[in-house]
């Protein structure tokens, strides 16, 4: 054929394609020829399916006939039967798709397209990407249609959009295996780094001596659950941790508060840092000494790398987006969430709240691994604690975690904040006083031992401290500061609140 004739034919063909696109619009992302090659390779190489089984699913293929053929190949592999042109045709007959796909001629045609399966993994990645692109188009089209509908609530639409996109990313997020050499070297480097640290802390230091000894600090990629009944002080403990890490040690921390707004949260932090009772922070009626402490210590908070977010009803998708940005832009080394049960997974469908909490818990663990930082999530406990009799009965158990057993399963560490004196228990089994004390009970620890750590609790300042920590604002008769080596003030009677508030009440809001 003359060159001019060939060029003219090509020009007419391009014009026809252009006209089709103008009339029909854009075609969805697809690669029909590659689909044929992949199916042909699967039928000539019995080992090829194991290479692509995690990448490809029937819906990955754009051509309906190819979906049915791949489904037949998949069924044969699941039954551990050989896969070739003849067995695929037989399977298609059993499924009622033999004539629909144009067998046997079309099956023969597919096997003739390839000589080997050498490039099947590369080709499969292309098909997988085309499929994700089609999913994104469908997702965006659905959002666009709903956005034009004026009867739609925009806030609900945004939550639905976030949930759908998060679900889509979770379904298509794959991580390949790695040969062990690189992991061994990474572990070796961590051990050498730990050896250089004479304090034994390899993660983010908690600021509490005994807790650091057991945990070696909060470890990278760990999900830590801090749980307790209302009034036990789990938020106060979290704020004390944030103060130790961000204000005292200078390590960036992000605190997501779903229960309190930013001002309420910072007021409690001011009480902790400045040793001013929370009630006086609210009414502003500070004594001269308290104003002095306020003026002398408030500057410690200014410029501290502590980032607070009080978005109500925070979704796991919003958290993921914000967390990535905080780690990237602010170098955040630890994330805190107060508290897990107030989060949601809007836009995703669940049969029960328990399923939703399980998804949230699993997502938090996945986020900790992705960002390679510790995530601390506060959690409530069920009322079962209140109903059990005796001193031992009031001690929290893993089964008390509220709304989902998945929390216990997903967490690398579960810690209970327990203050026996709240239940009018003033001595432990050995006769040691428990006034003004809190037990930090490590009930689950994937990387170490479980144990109890005793801290002193100063409720009026919402502060947890090491039992032997020097408190310049607790004076003895001579007016000098004292060391609270036992974490106690022995002058209190059994009926008094060791925090200075009179008789102990079960309504202490800490």
Folded structure, characterized:
The protein is of the alpha/beta class. The protein has helices at residues 3-24, 32-44, 48-52, 64-78, 85-94, 105-112, 120-148, 154-172, 180-196, 209-215, 234-248, 262-274, 278-283, 288-301, 316-330, 353-371, 384-387, 390-394, 406-410; strands at residues 223-228, 253-257, 306-309, 334-338, 375-380, 413-418, 437-445, 451-458, 463-465, 470-475, 481-483. It has a nine-stranded mixed beta sheet. It has a two-stranded antiparallel ribbon with strand order 10-11. β10 and β11 (481-483) form a beta hairpin. α2 crosses α7, α11 packs across α12 and α15 (316-330) runs parallel beside α16. The longest helix has 29 residues, at 120-148.
